[in-house]
Every structure is written in C-alpha cells, then in structure tokens.
Amino acid sequence: MLKKLTSGLVSAALMASALPFGQTAAAADFKANYAEALQKSLFFYECQQAGPLPSWNRVEWKTDSTMTDEVLGGWYDAGDHVKFNLPMAYSASMLAWGLYQYPEGLEKCGEMKNYVNNLEFVLDYLADCDKGDEAVFQVGNGTVDHTWWGPVSLIEYGMQDAGTEYASARETYTASEGCSCVFGGMAAALAAGYCALDGRIDETKRKEYLSHSENLFKLADASKSDAVYNDSNASGFYRSSHFYDELFYSANWLYKATGDKAYLDKATSYIPHLDKELGSDELKYTWCQCWDDTMQGGMLLYAQNTNDSTYINRVKKHVEYWTNDVKKLAGGLRWNATWGCARYAEAAGFIAAVASDTVLKDMNTSSYEKFYEEQINYVLGDNPDNQSYVVGYGEKSPRNAHHRTAHGSWKNDLAIPATNRHILYGALVGGPTENGEYEDDRQNFINNEVATDYNAGFTALLCKMIDKYGGTPDPKFPEKEAHDSPEFYVEALDKGSSSSGMTVSFKITNHSAWPARVQDNISCRYFMDMSEVIAAGKNPEDIVVRCDRDQAAMYSGKGIAPAQISKPIQYDGNIYYVEITLPDGRAVLPVSEGMQQCEILLAFVMPDYGSGWDAENDYSNKDILGKKGEADAEGSVKGYITPYIPTYVNGELYYGIEPDGTSADGMGGADIKDDKPDEKPVDEPATEKPTETTVPDDSSKIVYGDANLDGKVSISDAVRILQYIA
Fold first, then answer.
1. For residues 82 and 249, what is the distance between their CA atoms, to the nearest angstrom?
2. 525 lies in which domain range?
3. DSSP run (H or E) holding 181
4. Beta strand 640-641 with 637-638: parallel, antiparallel or unpaired?
C-alpha cells in the first residue's frame, strides 16, 4: 500500500500509454450474479478484520491479531497491517450508504445479516477511537509496517526478526485538533451507520454511534485544519488534500440522522470553501467520490436534503461528466487515474445510481443507468478480455493480489511462493491500464493492489444492482481451502555415514498458513532398524545420540527452550526411533528465511563407539541415504522432504508414514501412499516456482523498455521502473 506520488509514476504512466492494446472480443451474452459478488465482497472485509475476530468471521486462514493495539478491531487498510482511519471511515460510510439506500434487495437475497455484521464491526472501532476531547486517527506506523512481508498473525515475530520493535510498528496516533479530514470522515461514517442500521442493531449502540459522530464532528469543525494529520505518518500514505469536503459530507449525514437544521446550516456554510474547477469559480464536478474527496457524495446528500435546483444541477453535471466525458475503455469502464482506476469508476457509478433514483428521478436517466451498469459489469467480467477484476469471482479472476496474509510467504519475500496461498475472495483489484491491459502480478501494486476503499463504492453499487435485478448467494461459500503442501514437515539430509554410525541434518519446518501460527510441540521421528546392534550383543537403547547443532538453543536469550531429543524408543521388534521435539513454537516460524526452519544435527553412533552400523536397513533413510542434495543459486544445500521421517504435532501424526503403514498427509486428509517420492532436492513446498528470466546476450535483440527482461514491454516494466526510483 503505497500512495505517494513520484516522478516515477509519471514515467510509468507514459510507458503504459505506449503499450499495445491487444484485446479479444467479449462474450456476446453477459450475466452477473450480483448477490454472489456482494457475498464475496463482504468476505473480503472479513479478511481485513483486525483484533479479536468475531464468531461469525468466515475466513479459515485468519486468527486474532495485533491484540495489543490501543484500540482493537477495525480493518487493516490494504495488503498491509495498518489501520488508517481516513480511508476506513470513507469505506464504512459508503457501505452504510449502500444499505441505507437499497435495503430491500439485501433482505431478499439473504445477505442482510452478513452486511450488518461487517458494518457494525467497523463502526464499533470508529466509535472506540473517540476519546472525548481527542480521538485516535491511526493505529500502526505505515513506514515500519512496510519493512516486513508476512502474515499479520505473526507480525510481532516478523518485526522482531527484522530487528524492529513491535511497539513502533503498532504506534497509536491521537490528536485533539488539526485532523478535520479524518475526524469529519469518522463522523460521517457513524452518522451514516446510525441511519442505515435503524431497527437492525441494538438501539442503545446505535444511539452511541450518533453521539460519537456528533462529538467527532465537533472536533473536526473546531480547528478546521489538517495540520496535525498531514504532519503525521499518515501523510506518506493518505495525505489529505482538503478537509471542507469531509465537513460538508458529515454535516449532511448528521442532518439526515438528527433532522437538526443546525447541521444543514453548517453544510451550507462550507460550500464557498469547496473545491473549484481550475481557473474558475465553478464548484468542482470533474473528480469523484473517494477516500480523499467526499465532495460529490456530500453534494448529492445536500441536494436531497434541500431539494435546491442549483445543487441538483451540480449533481447532474457531475453524473453527466462521468457518463460522457471520462475516458471510456472498450467494454465501458471509465478510466480516470493510473492507480486503482476501478475504485473510482465503481464509486462514480454508485453516485450516479443514487442520483438517478432520488434527485434526478424525474429526468431521463437512461444514459446514467447504462453508465453505472457498465461500471459494475466491467469489473465482473463484461469486457473484451472476459477478465473479472474481483478475486474469486467468475471463470477468469485475479489470484495474486498484492496482499501479505493472502500471499502467505514464509520467507519475508514478495516473490515466494509464486502463487498466493489463499483466495482473497471478493477483493476488487486496482483495474486495467489506460489501454485496457491487466496482469495478475502481485508485484504490480498499481493494478493489482487491493484495499478497503477499493471495495467501498463497488459494494455499495452492488446493493443497487441486487435491488434492481436480484441474485442468489452461493450456498456453499466459502468452501474449505485446499492446502498447497503440509504446513509442518522435516527437510532431511545425509551428512555422512560409516560403520560406526550416521549423521543426519533435520530441518523442522513451519510453513503454516491456515492460519500462520506459533505451533508448540512440533516433533519428528527417525526410525532405525537395530538388528545389527542387537546381533553385536548391544542394547539399542545404548546407542549414542549426539547433538552437534541445536538451532533452537541459539534463541535461549529470548526464553525459548532448546530441542528435546529422546533416547532410542522401541517401536516394534527391532525397529526403534529417536524423537526430536521443539517444545516452544517460537523456535521455528514462517516469518523469514532464517526462522522458517530450525536445524537439529544429530549423530547416531554404535554403542561404545564400536563398528557394524548398517544405515541401509534404516526405514527413515529411504529417501536420503547417500544423497548430498543440490546447492541453490545462493549456495545453500537443500535436503529432502521425506514421509519416512514423519512429523507430529502435540504427539499426533501430522505428516508422513510410520513403518507399519500408519500415515497422514498433512493436507487435512488421513492417509498417503507408501510410494517413494521423486528423488530430487527440496526447493519450496509449494510446487509452483517463479518463471526465470535471462539477460539477452545479443544486443540486437534488446527490447527497449523491457525492464524485467521478459522479452516484451508491459505494465510490469512500468512498475519495475517505479519501484526502482521510488
């Protein structure tokens, strides 16, 4: 989530404008299930929930997170872990508006309860941010947060591993003045929620929303300044361009909520201070409703509240501008900005829909109706490429959205694994380029980022579409996700054997993602046939088990217990095993290259350091004996994932095959076949690997502008250039 403007953005936009168009024909008939799209959009908001998760949260790969925040709850903004109240409040107000304007469709399609749950969740957080004489306007430091790429459930450990104090990553920002934009936005959200939730939640709580809204509006109006806000960490991510638009927006919502004419008078007093067209005294109509500009939403509310023809005409001019004058891509999407264009089109579509149904209803609105339907249908797949821009919706939808927890990296690496491990259902990605192109590239945060404000206008407009056309949610949603590999396993490597014994490297691995977690008591068992020891007249329990390396012991300064290594334990007959246990899950965590595995190096030696050891008959050596692994590009030697060194969690078999055939697949199933896997070094458990590129050695074949050296010029090259110079 990066919103700063740099000269690189200009360069990227210029490059994108030179790209070939290259689109295919769209399907002749397009049918959308708006209720399913809404169902999944609400799920996305559940993916963004912070703090203690409510019992109704449906995301199996989420758990409680950032539990030490001064204010719990709320939404993480985008693919990061910061709670930015300005875009969050805007998003909440739009969800509230969708419900307020079009409740009947939500009732009929059966999504009302999910909708109310998600709206109430975020409003509870915004209300809790009101501290009376001051208010919290942000939780989390965006600059610090963006230094680590990993799942939010382990952010504390990820930050510590990266050498950062967790407390600095979760800094709380509070002010009593100089935050008119965000305080006004919070007031608008709570007032809109008060209106939308009438009769749908506890009345005492609903009245508390209104009380907090009025207090936050008072704080916003008192100082009429963004000086404190724009001098805070928020400025690098969501800098406010103005604040009178939020004051105007919130005053209009408060008038709807209370009927108190004082709020309408306040709204009227702000109009002279609203933005004007460049070089003109005319009120601005050429931008749109978004996190940084709620003027057009406020204007529509003001026209409703006053029925004044002057302001009804302002609304009409804005809707006509979007309908007729904004650049129209093939398929109908209106494109007005490089970064996240789809969010603007959907929000503009919602404003057009509400205007058509209220202040413009006595006019011919057919062109406006076509406009807003084109916006929603385009992102659902009605476009020349049949490309859905909503994750998990439609036959051709994004998968690799720019989102840390959905990606599920265990290495603090944006590129590994190649494919996101979780489906971020319902998330609206940024959208196409100006030429209508799109690549499902996680590293392209211009076109493939997601955020709560991206889904705001989209969700609200879906309320209208369901109200008009109906729809049916998917009764099986969400289905249980298939795991991409075992979350816990051992990577083993033969470090040498002789007649006196054998040395084995055991790398206990935590690649958990359902959810990513600290898992105590991960263990593995190394099975050996002790026939030769017994034949030599020795007791198998007397073999020497020497630990030459215990990575867990390196963390003793953090209070982490070392590995526990058992004596040989009889399994059956002459088969014995040695068990290695990590009692403290903090010894192995999916947060970085160094922490995702914990190595234990053991030497197994004949009793009395005698001879006669036979490594070839040992069950657990099936995949590793005599194999030295292969070095990767960094020179690290990779071992082998083998089911014959089974992995256990809390003493129960999790992955692998015991000598008697008892097995577990580590994928949520029960059994795996006793088939010897391919004999190849382990790279990454997720089998898909990024495509490698090579530098062309013939200068005559160089493609100028091909920044990522894939042989073509595309938006990915523009993004690479932007990343380099940012």
1. 25
2. 488-665
3. helix 180-196
4. unpaired
Residue pair 114/39 in contact (Cβ under 8 Å)? The answer is yes
DSSP state of 199: T
Distance of CA 677 to the CA centre of its chain: 34
pLDDT at position 355 over 80: yes
**402 part of the active site:** yes
Cβ contact 452:78 at 8 Å: yes
Task: Check: CB of residue 577 under 8 Å from CB of residue 523.
Answer: no
**Tens digit of pLDDT for each residue in 28-39?**
489 999 999 999
542/544 Cα distance (integer angstroms): 6
Given a cut of 50, whether residue 709 has pLDDT beyond it is: no
Contact (CB, 8 A) for 488 and 649: yes
> What DSSP element (H or E) covers 626?
none
Whether residue 537 is found in the same domain as residue 464 = no
Statement: residue 330 has pLDDT above 80: yes
Which candidate in 449, 494, 529, 618 is catalytic? 449
What is 526-589 written as a DSSP string? Answer: EEEE-HHHHHTT--GGGSEEEEEEEGGGGGGGGTPPPPEEPPPEEEETTEEEEEEEESSGGGS-
Structure tokens at 533: 């020891």
Q: Are residues 385 and 498 in the same domain?
A: no
Instruction: Assign 3-state DSSP to the chain and report helix, strand, coil percentages, each to 5.
Output: 40, 15, 45
CATH number at residue 643: 2.60.40.710
Report the distance separating Cα 366 and Cα 370, nearest Å: 6
Q: What is the DSSP letter of 322?
A: I
Segment 170-180, tens digit of pLDDT: 999 999 999 99
Of 440, 487, 599, 658, the active-site residue reads 440
Asked about 674 being catalytic, the answer comes back as: no
Cβ neighbourhood burial of 572 (10 Å; 0-12, 13-18, 19+): exposed
What confidence tier does 557 reach under pLDDT thresholds 50, 70, 90?
Answer: very high
* 245 part of the active site: no
Three-state DSSP at 215 gives helix
C-alpha to C-alpha distance for 318 and 321, rounded to whole angstroms: 5
Give 706's pLDDT tier (boundaries 50, 70, 90).
low
- pLDDT at 674 (0 to 100): 54
Same domain, 464 and 504: no
Tokens of 24: 């295919």
Task: State the catalytic residue, choosing from 36, 69, 77, 80.
Answer: 80
The answer to whether residues 436 and 494 belong to one domain is no
Residue 306 lies in a domain: yes
- In tens, the pLDDT along 645-703 reads 999 999 999 999 999 999 999 997 545 555 544 333 333 344 333 333 232 333 334 44
| Residue 672: inside a domain | no
Plot region of 5 (φ>0 → left; ψ -120 to 50 → alpha; else → beta): beta
Structurally, the chain folds into a number of domains equal to 3
Question: In whole angstroms, what is the distance from residue 239 CA to residue 89 CA?
Answer: 15
Q: For residue 402, which amino acid is it?
A: H
Which residue is catalytic, options 212, 318, 402, 422?
402
Split at pLDDT 50, 70, 90, the class of 704 is very low
What 3-state DSSP class applies to 328? strand
How high is the pLDDT of residue 633? 76
Task: Answer yes or no: is pLDDT of 721 > 50.
Answer: no
C-alpha distance across the termini of the chain, in Å: 13
pLDDT tens-place string over residues 139-164 = 999 999 999 999 999 999 999 999 99
CA atoms lying within 13 Å on the CB side of residue 207: 3
Same domain, 136 and 252: yes
Integer Cα distance of 464 and 111 in angstroms: 13
On whether both 717 and 660 belong to a single domain, the answer is no
pLDDT in tens, 111-143: 999 999 999 999 999 999 999 999 999 999 999
Same domain? For 73 and 191 the reply is yes
Same domain, 372 and 449: yes
Classify residue 187 by its DSSP letter: H
80 noted as active-site residue: yes
The angle that helices 7-17 and 715-725 make with each other, rounded to 10 degrees, is 170
